[in-house]
C-alpha cells in the first residue's frame, strides 16, 4: 500500500482553485470519494492530512479549495476576511462546493456514484450547505461546524445522510442553534444524527487549538470519538449504496 497525492486544479470563472487529492494505489478499483472542506484559514496541512487518512481507510480524499490557489490566512483577522465574502454570498459558496463535487467525480480513481463530504468549522457549514442545496451525494459530516441557514434553500429536500459532531460548549454554535438545525434538517426530510460532546468547545479536532477566550480548544476524547463516528458513518453509507447497485 502506498498513499499517492496530487494537486487538482479547477476554476470558478476566473478564479483558479486547487484541491489536494490522496488515494491508495494498491488497487485499480474505483473507490468512494470524500470531499474535505477546510476551516476558515483555507486549505492547509490539517485538511491535507485528513485526505491522507481517508486514503488509508480505502477512500479517495479530496481536500477542496474555496478561496483560490495558494490563498491562505495567517491569523484570525486574515482568516475572517477570507471567509466573510462566502458567508455573505452563500450562493457563491454553494457554487464552489458543487464545483469541487464535479471535479472529484471526474477523477479516474473515484467511483462517481459514491461520494460524501466532510468539513471542519467553516467547512462544516460548507458541507451542510452542499446538501441543503440539493447535491446528489450519499452523506455529509460536519465537525464543529457553523449552523446558520443560508436563506436560499427553503423547501428543499436533503437526500444525503447527515452527521453533525458538535462541542456542546461551542460559543459559535449555541444550543439554540443546534435545536434550530435539528428542526431545519427534519423539515428537509434528512436522515440526520447530531452527536454533542460535553465540556467541549469549538475546533476540538485541531491539536493546535488552545484559545479558551475565543472558544477554540482541542479535546482529544472528542477528536477520537468523532473520527470513530465518521468511519462508521462512511462505512454505512458506502456499503448501503453498494447493496443498492
Indicate the topology.
Layout: E1 3-12, E2 15-24, E3 31-37, H1 45-56, E4 60-63, H2 76-88, H3 90-106, E5 110-120, H4 122-132, E6 139-143, E7 161-167, H5 175-187, E8 191-197, E9 210-211, E10 216-217, H6 220-244
Parallel strand pairs: 3-4, 3-5, 5-6, 6-7, 7-8
Antiparallel strand pairs: 1-2, 2-4, 9-10
Helix pairs in contact: 3-4
Please provide a brief summary of the model:
This protein is of the alpha/beta class. Helices cover 37% and strands 27% of the residues.
Search tags:
10 strands, alpha/beta, Rossmann fold, globular, eight-stranded mixed β-sheet, 245 residues
Number of strands: 10
% residues in beta strands: 25-35%
- The CATH architecture comes to 3-Layer(aba) Sandwich
The run of helices and strands is EEEHEHHEHEEHEEEH
Q: Identify the strand order in the major beta sheet.
A: 1-2-4-3-5-6-7-8
- CATH classification class: Alpha Beta
In this structure, how is the largest beta sheet organized? 8 strands, mixed
Q: Looking at this structure, what is the CATH superfamily?
A: Alpha/Beta hydrolase fold, catalytic domain
From the helix content, strand content and strand pairing, which structural class follows?
alpha/beta
CATH T-level fold name:
Rossmann fold
Q: Kindly state the percentage of residues in helix.
A: 25-40%
From the N-terminal CA to the C-terminal CA, the straight-line distance is 27 Å
Shape: globular
If you compute it from the alpha carbons, what radius of gyration comes out, rounded to the nearest whole angstrom? 17 Å
Number of domains: 1
Helix tally equals 6
Amino acid at each position: 500500500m502506498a498513499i499517492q497525492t496530487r494537486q487538482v486544479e479547477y476554476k470558478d470563472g476566473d478564479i483558479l482553485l486547487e484541491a489536494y487529492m490522496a488515494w491508495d494505489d494498491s488497487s485499480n478499483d474505483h473507490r468512494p470519494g470524500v470531499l474535505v472542506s477546510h476551516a476558515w484559514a483555507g486549505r492547509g496541512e490539517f485538511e491535507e492530512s485528513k485526505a491522507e487518512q481517508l486514503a488509508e481507510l480505502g477512500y479517495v480524499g479530496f481536500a477542496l479549495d474555496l478561496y483560490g490557489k495558494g490563498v491562505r490566512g495567517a491569523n484570525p483577522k486574515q482568516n475572517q476576511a477570507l471567509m466573510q465574502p462566502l458567508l455573505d454570498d452563500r450562493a457563491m459558496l454553494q457554487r464552489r462546493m458543487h464545483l469541487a463535487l464535479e471535479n472529484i467525480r471526474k477523477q479516474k480513481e473515484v467511483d462517481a456514484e459514491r461520494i460524501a463530504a466532510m468539513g471542519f468549522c467553516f467547512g462544516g457549514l460548507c458541507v451542510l450547505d452542499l446538501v441543503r442545496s440539493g447535491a446528489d451525494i450519499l452523506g455529509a459530516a460536519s465537525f464543529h461546524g457553523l449552523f446558520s441557514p443560508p436563506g436560499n434553500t427553503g423547501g428543499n429536500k436533503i437526500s444525503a445522510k447527515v452527521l453533525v459532531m458538535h462541542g456542546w460548549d461551542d460559543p459559535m454554535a449555541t444550543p439554540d442553534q443546534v435545536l434550530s438545525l435539528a428542526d431545519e434538517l427534519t423539515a428537509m426530510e434528512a436522515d440526520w444524527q447530531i452527536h454533542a460532546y460535553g465540556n467541549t468547545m469549538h475546533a476540538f479536532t485541531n491539536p493546535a487549538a488552545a484559545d479558551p477566550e475565543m472558544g477554540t480548544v482541542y479535546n482529544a476524547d472528542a477528536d477520537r470519538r468523532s473520527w470513530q463516528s465518521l468511519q462508521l458513518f462512511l462505512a454505512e453509507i458506502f456499503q448501503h449504496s453498494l447493496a443498492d447497485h
